[in-house]
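User: Hi! Is it possible to get a structure for several chains at once, not just one? Here's what I have:
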Amino acid sequence: MTEPSDANASPPTSPPDAPLRTTPLNARHRQLGARMVGFGGYDMPVQFPTGILAEHLWTRENAGLFDVSHMGQGFVVGADHETVARALETLCPADIVGLKPGQQRYSQLLNDAGGILDDFMVTRSTDPAEDGALMFVVNASRKEADWAHIEARLPAGVRLMRAENRALVALQGPRAADVLARHVPGVADMAFMTAVSAAFDGIDCHVSRSGYSGEDGFEISVRARRVEDLADALLAEPEVKPIGLGARDSLRLEAGLCLYGHDIDETTSPVEAALVWSMQKRRREEGGFPGYERIRRELAEGASRKRVGILPEGRAPAREGAEITTRDGRPVGVVTSGGFGPSVGGPVAMGYVAADMAAPGSELSLVVRGNALPARVVSLPFVPHRYARRVV
Amino acid sequence: MAETRYTRDHEYIRVDGDTGTVGITDYAQQQLGDVVFVELPQVGKSVAKGGEAAVVESVKAASEVYAPVAGEVVEVNGDLEGAPGTVNEDPKGRGWFMKMRITDPAQLAELMTEDQYNDYVAGL
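Assistant: Yes, the chains can be modeled jointly so their relative placement is included. Here is the combined structure:
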C-alpha cells in the first residue's frame, strides 16, 4: 500500500525543509493522542483517535473544538473607523466603511489582475474606545505575505499590528452556543458574523459568531498563555470533543467554503469563485479596488469559468486535480477540492468549469485513475448552512 | 495449514494451497483512518508482484494496494463496495480485498513472516 498522503497537508507555499512552527496547544494535542501533520508551516492535529468520520459527525450534531491558532491575527489601526476602512477598501472588494461596530465580514485581498492573494475575516470592534481598529484573521500559509502586502499599502497614520501573541480556537456545531454561554454569558444572543470583547471564566477574549464548518459556532481569540485553560474548560464539557484538520476540511467542503491555495488562488477572481455575495453593492458599482476592470467585466458579461459543486454519481471520490470533462470527453475544468462527505454519505467535490457547464444539473465526467466517472453540477452547499441568522 | 506473509507496504497474503487471500494489515488500516471507498480489480486480471491491484481511499487520501506476489485474480470481496469500513473493523478477516491464484510460490519466500512483519512495524 502506498503511504496515504494528506492531500491538503502542505500548501505549495511552504518551503519543504523549513522546521514546523507550533501553536500554544501543541502539547495538549499530543496528550490527546492527535496524529500531527504539517499544515501552513505549522505542526497541526489532522485527527484525534476517534478519526475524521466520527469527528465530522460529532461536530454536525454536538460541538467540536478546533485549534486554529496557526492562522494570522492582526489589527489595522488608525485615527477613526472611516480612515482605516477607506485604506482597507483599496485592497479588497468588500464594504468595510459600512461595517457597524461588532460586525464581521469575509473578503479577499486582490492583486492588480483581480486574482485572490488571500481570503480573510475582518471585524470592527464594538468598543467605542477602539474605534479605528479592525481585526483581521488570515490564512496561516499566507500571513507573512499578507502582512507585507497590507503594510506596504497603508497610508501614513494607519498601521498594522501583528497579534503574534494571540491564539485562536473555534467551537463549532449546534450545541456550541449552549456550551459557550456557560463560560461567556450572553453569547447565545449574538447574531452570525458579529463579535464582542468578553471574558471567558475571567479570561479576556474576543468572541465572534462565525466559523468554517457550515454550522453555528464561534471563534475565540485569546492571549496565547491563556488558551490552554480556555480549551481545557471547553473540552471538559460533555458536548465538546477536539477536532482535527481532517474533519475541518470535510466540514468546510460540504459547506461549500473555499480553501485558499486550492479553490481560490492568485489566478481566480471572486466572480469566478462564486464569491460575488462577499462584494457589497456599493463596491461592485464603484470599484476602487485592485483588479476592478476584470471584476466589472465579469460581473457584466459573466466569467468564462465558475466554481461549482459537483456530485459524483458513484461511490469513488474525485480528488483535487481530477480533470472535468463533458460526458463526451471535452475538457471543461478541474476539481479543486474533492473527497468523501461524511454527512452526505458519499463523495463530493468542488471545481471550476466552463461557464456553459456551470448550471446545476449539468452532466459531467470526472477522470479518476483514467476512468471517466459520471457526475453532475449541484448547488452549493452540499449540507445546508445552519448559521444563527438573526437581526443585530 | 494457511500461512500469512507480509510486504513492506503493509499488504498481507494468506496462503492456502495455490491460492492467496490479499488485504491490508491492521497497521495499514490504522494509518489510513476511516476507509470510505475500495476499488477492486476485475476477476481474471493478471497482476505482477508489486503491481497495482486495488485502491483504498480514506476521507482524506487515496492509496494503492499492491499484489504481494504475481498471480491471477480469482475472486474479489464485493461486500466492501457497500461497506468499505469493514477494512477498518476486520482487516485480516471480512475486510479482505481479493483472492489470487499464485503463479510462482517461490516469490512467497521473499515476503516477511508474521514475526518479521511485527518487528518491522515496531521499528516504524
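Residues 304-378 of chain A form a domain with the Elongation Factor Tu (Ef-tu); domain 3 fold (CATH 2.40.30.110). Chain A has two domains: 1-251, 304-378.

User: Great, thank you!
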